[in-house]
Amino acid sequence: MLANYDLSGKRALVTGGAGGIGRGTVRAYLRCGASVAINDLPGSPKLAEVVAELTDEGHHVVAAPGDVGDPDDAPRMVSDAIDALGGLDYLVNNAGTPGTKAPIPPADFERQDEDFWNLLLNVNLIGPYRCTKAAAAALRESGGAIVNTASISAFGMGGSSSPYCATKAGLVVLTKEWARALAPDVRVNAIAPGAVDSDWMCRFPGLEESNSWTIPLDRIGTPTDYGEAILFLSAGAGYVTGQTLNVDGGLTT
Ligand SMILES: NC(=O)c1ccc[n+]([C@@H]2O[C@H](COP(=O)([O-])OP(=O)(O)OC[C@H]3O[C@@H](n4cnc5c(N)ncnc54)[C@H](O)[C@@H]3O)[C@@H](O)[C@H]2O)c1
Fold it and tell me: Domains of the chain, with CATH numbers?
């Protein structure tokens, strides 16, 4: 059963909102009656598609194109989204990139070069900082909440690359830092997804089908599963801040 909050009059911005977890989150907010600004990369056909689809269904959504990895574009995008929505109650820092189509083993230092590090730090770690900074005043005014999308790779489970794991571990720490920074007005939490049924750029060939991942709940997480957890941490969970919730079907147990 899906959670049901009355979010009429509430306003959310979801970065990377045209992707898998992003769409699941956008749909969760819309189901509860919120208005949503959907961010994704400028020129993304997926963004135009999802905005058209949801508008046709009668929802109040606005497109918020912008690159969270760009120090100028990210605050501009957040500010435009806040103007379009008339304020902000929830910010979901969900945009992220593995920067590679195939996993880079920890020992392959050559491929973890400066450009690779810079891309991942910029999008996955400084991106959420930029958006949080730009949204802080509006969220303080509304008494809102932030949810960051981290990853179980933050906890030494391995991931698409060591820099990727490091950015997600950084985001877990920043979730605590920002929870203190913005308290008592704004709560800040994170989810750490495990396996995700999405178009994520990096594939782990054979892994999903093999026995090397034992997921107690015996299935890969859907965008709806992740959207529900983000909805709970932002619209519910009123006494929870600074926490990262593993949403992984029990994979890390
Ligand atoms: N897929 C996984 O296995 C997995 C596991 C753990 C955590 N995550 C995290 O979940 C989040 C969402 O990933 P997903 O699985 O839905 O994948 P996805 O690829 O479907 O969605 C990611 C979205 O972010 C957008 N994006 C990328 N760079 C951006 C930028 N600079 N500015 C704005 N938008 C940008 C992409 O265009 C895409 O639509 C990411 O932060 C990812 O790190 C994913």
Answer: 11-247 (3.40.50.720)
Residues classed as catalytic: 164
pTM of the shown model: 0.97
- What is the whole-number distance in angstroms between the Cα of residue 239 and the centre of ligand 1? 28
Residue 211: which pLDDT band, with cuts at 50, 70 and 90?
low
Angle at the Cα of 176 from the Cα atoms of 199 and 140, rounded to 5 degrees:
90
Centroid of ligand 1 to alpha carbon of 40 (angstroms): 10
Burial class (CB in 10 A: 0-12, 13-18, 19+), 242: middle
What are the pLDDT digits (tens) for 140-165? Answer: 999 999 999 999 999 998 999 999 99
Cβ of 67 below 6 Å from ligand 1: yes
**Residue 210 identity:** S
